[in-house]
Amino acid sequence: MSPGNKKKPLRDLQYLPHVVIIGGGFGGIATARGLADRGVRVTVVDKHNFHTFLPLLYQVATAGLEPADVAYPIRTIFGSAANIDFRHGKVKAVHHSENRIVLEDDSVIEYDHLVVATGGTAAFFGIPGASQYSLPLYSLADARRLRNRLLLSLEDAEVRALNGAITLNFVVVGGGPTGVETAGALSELIRLVIKRDGLRVDPASVHVILVDREKRLLLNFPERGSAYARMELDRIGVEMEFDRIVTEVTDHSLRFADGTELEAAAVIWAAGLTTVGTLAHTLSEEHGPGGRALVEPDLRLIGSHNVWAVGDAAAIPDATGYLPQLAPVAIQSGKRCAQNILAIVNGTPTEPLKYRNKGIMATIGRHAAIAKVPGLGIIRGTAGWLAWLGLHLWYLVGFRNRIRVLINWTWRYFDWPSGPRLIVADAETAE
After folding, report:
1. Which range marks the domain in which residue 229 is found?
2. What is the rounded distance in angstroms from the CA atom of residue 99 to the CA atom of residue 186?
3. pTM greater than the 0.85 cutoff
4. How many structural domains is the chain composed of?
5. Per the domain annotation, does 158 fall within a domain?
6. In whole angstroms, what separates CA 190 from the centre of its chain?
7. Is 385 helix (H, G, I), strand (E, B) or coil?
C-alpha cells in the first residue's frame, strides 16, 4: 500500500460484508492489513487518528524522540486500500444482538464482523493514589506529560539548588522491560541535561530509583539476563530496590508495606497492564487474566460467531495458559483474525492462532541491550543493542518515520545533541 495514492473504489463496495475494527494499535492495524483489498468492507475506529509505536514511547518521554517519530496517520497507512475507511471516534457501547456499535456522539455503525483491538491500560492494583499521582506510559499524551514533568522538575531543582543542597528523586515502579528501558533512558537524560544545557544542579543530588516487588529484574529472562540488566543499570547510575511493595502514592512520595516513605519528584508507573476500564472488559461477564476478553483459539469471543478480539485485549489460550501481552502476539493475532474472517466469508473453516515466539528484548542505554531469542539463547551487550535497533526500525510504520528515527539515533550516538527537550504547555491537558 503506497501512502498518498488515490483510492480506486471497488464495484458494489457497499454490499460487501462489513468488518468494523475498534483500535488502531498493532493488533487492529495487522487485522486491517490482512483485509486490505479483499472481499470485505472495513472501517477502523479509533479515538486517535494515528497509530502509535508503543515500544518507543519511553524515548519520547525522555526527550530522545519527537512524538511524530513514533506516530503515523491511520488514513495514510491505508491510503491506497479501496475497501478500508477510518472513523475518528470513541466507542461507548457494543450491542451484540443488533450487530452494531454506538460512538460517544451517539452515531451508530453496523457490522457483520467486529474486531476489538483496544489494547490495555496501566494496572494500578487498587493502590491508593497510584492512578491519580503516578505517570503511566501507554499513549503519546502520557509520554508528553511525563517529559514535561521531568524537565520541569529539573528546572525547578536548579532554582532550589541556589538556596542550598537538594535531593531530587525520580522513581520508576516496575522491573519489566518498560521499567528497565525507562529508568536507563532517564538516567542518561539527566546527565545529558545537566551537562549540555548548563543546569547548575549537582548530578549527585539527582537519583533515578527503580523499585519492584520481585527479587530481580526482567522475570521473563533467565537469571543471568536479569543480572546483566542490573549490572548495566548500576553502571549508568540507576539505583534499584527489590522486595518493595508500594502501598500508596501521594503527590510527592511513595509509601511501602514496611512503613517507609520515599520522596519523589515523579513516579513513573510501569508495574503492569490491564484491560479493566477498556471496551474489551465490557464484552462479556467472564474475563481472562488482567480483565482480558476470553476468546476461542480462532480468536472469536467465547459464545459469539462474529465478534473477535486480538492483541492485548484478548486472553488467547495456548498450551501454557494464555499468550503474553506483547506486540508480536498482537501482530500475529491480527493477521490470523483477518484470515479467519475471510475464511468465514468464503465458507471455509477457521484455524487457531499458532503463535511463533520470536523472543523478547529490552535496551539499557547506549551499547547495552538484552534479548532472549528462541534457538539462540541470550544475546546481550552491543550485539543485543544492534538487534534491538534493527527490530524496532523494521516494525516502525512509515518510511519517513524510519528515516527520522535512524537519523535521530545516529546523531545522538555520535554527538548527544540538545534534542527535543521542550516543555510543551498543553501536554498536561492532552488526551
Report:
1. 130-273+360-429
2. 46
3. yes
4. 2
5. yes
6. 23
7. helix
Beta strands in 295-376 (DSSP E): 307-309, 314-315, 317-318, 321-322, 360-363, 369-373
**Residue 279 and residue 288 in contact, taking contact as beta carbons nearer than 8 Å:** no
Q: Please check whether residue 236 is in contact with residue 187, taking contact to mean a CB–CB distance below 8 angstroms.
A: yes
Active-site residue among 181, 214, 261, 286? 181
Beta-carbon contacts of 26 under 8 Å, excluding residues fewer than 6 positions away, are: 54, 311, 327, 330, 331, 334
> Is 50 exceeded by the pLDDT of residue 1?
no
328-365: b (≥16 Cβ within 10 Å) or e: bbbbbbbbbbbbbbbebbeeeebeebebeeebbbbbbb
CA–CA separation, 71 vs 56, rounded Å? Answer: 10
Which residues, listed in sequence order, are joined to residue 20 by a DSSP beta bridge? 43, 114
Known active-site residue 248: no
SS3 203: helix
Q: What is the pLDDT of residues 242-282, one digit of tens each?
A: 999 999 999 999 999 999 999 999 999 999 999 999 999 99
Q: Among 320, 345, 370, which residue terminates a domain?
A: 345
Q: How far apart are alpha carbons 44 and 163 in whole angstroms?
A: 55
